[in-house]
Amino acid sequence: MKKMVSMDEDRFTRLVREHSPAVANYLRRRLYPLTASDLDDLVEETLLVVWRRLDDVPVDAELPWMIGVAKNVLRNARRSKNRRVAFEATLVPPRDNPSAEEFVIADTTVREALSSLNEDDREFLLLHAWDGLDTHELGKLYAISTNAAAVRLSRAQRRFRELLGGTENG
Predict the structure, then answer these.
(1) Residues 43-76: pLDDT tens digits?
(2) What are the tens digits of pLDDT across the range 107-143?
(3) In the CATH hierarchy, which top-level class contains the domain 100-164?
(4) Where in the chain do CATH 1.10.1740.10 domains reside?
């Protein structure tokens, strides 16, 4: 059995050496609509089929048989690409949803109120509202207690509401 495997390997190596350039050229000339980056994959897939079906490769027609395999591999790759393109065409492109930041900045009243806050209050509010830090996390960030962070956040929110023109408590 070992000698048989060696003979198969030798034959396959010879087929690759002698015929893979011609197979690659065949595929390259017929590649469209696939891209040049697909060429190596197509040659590799062709050679895999040749290896799996090495006993079916006719001795007197090796190159034509390999080109026939390459033709089928190319057909399959085109079908796969066409299916992928058809599927992608059915997908609804995601809408460009503005981020929370864009909503807030687009509102001039909010923008003006934010810019009127002192830098510490503004940063505290933005870390809470935009970055999602709770009072415990704000306390850790500023090296203060959770209670102190809650008081700072509450005061910053109150000043912000006042700047917006709202006087409600909470």
Answers:
(1) 999 999 999 999 999 999 999 999 999 999 999 9
(2) 677 778 888 899 889 888 988 988 888 999 999 989 9
(3) mainly alpha
(4) 2-90
C-alpha pair distances (Å), 168 with each of 68, 129, 157, 158, 160:
80, 19, 11, 9, 11
In the numeric block, which tokens belong to residue 86?
């058809």
What is the model's pLDDT at position 3? 56
CATH number of the domain located at residue range(s) 2-90 in this protein? 1.10.1740.10
Q: How many CB atoms lie within 10 A of CB 142?
A: 15
> Which residue's entry shows tokens 């704000």?
138
**Does residue 86 surpass a pLDDT of 80?**
yes
Q: Where in the chain do CATH 1.10.10.10 domains reside?
A: 100-164
Rounded to the nearest angstrom, the gap between the alpha carbon of residue 11 and the centroid of all alpha carbons in its chain is: 41
DSSP string, 112-148: HHHHHS-HHHHHHHHHHHTT---HHHHHHHHTS-HHH
> Whole-model pTM?
0.52
Closest C-alpha among 125, 106, 102, 103 to residue 114: 125
